[in-house]
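Lecture notes, part 5. Sequence design as translation. It can be helpful to think of inverse folding as translation between two languages: the language of shapes and the language of residues. The source text, in structure tokens, appears below.
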């Protein structure tokens, strides 16, 4: 059995960036996540959030966006395998979408915990 030659590391990064670009340009929900991220970054600068708060926000951006990409991949694979409505296909798609939803809800709650006190403080001046 012949050993398969691996692509150079730079090509692996190229494939990854191509995947990110494809999801950002083609998936509505990823565009929504990107808009939310930009809004949070602007709010972070306006309210001078701490380095720890920045780390929390960045981690949550990464989690939600990575899960959105996994969701897109699951949907693409399921669609590739079958066009029929099948219970397992529905479960795979729904579970992947649910994972994104849970992460997004938790990110929104964490964002409220970080930003609402800062907003209230700025309004009371």
């Amino acid at each position: 059995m012949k050993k398969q030659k691996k692509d150079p590391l730079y090509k692996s990064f190229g494939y990854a960036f191509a995947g990110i670009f494809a999801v950002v340009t083609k998936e509505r929900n990823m565009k929504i996540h990107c808009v939310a991220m930009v809004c949070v970054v602007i709010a972070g600068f306006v309210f001078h959030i701490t380095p720890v708060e920045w780390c929390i926000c960045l981690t949550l951006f990464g989690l939600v966006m990575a899960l959105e990409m996994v969701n897109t991949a699951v949907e693409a694979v399921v669609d590739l395998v079958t066009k029929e409505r099948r219970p397992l296909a529905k479960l795979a798609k729904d579970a992947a979408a649910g994972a994104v939803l849970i992460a997004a809800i938790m990110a929104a709650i964490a964002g409220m915990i970080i930003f609402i006190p800062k907003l209230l403080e700025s309004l009371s001046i």
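The translated text above is only one of many valid answers, since several sequences can fold into similar shapes. The first helix runs from residue 9 to 26.
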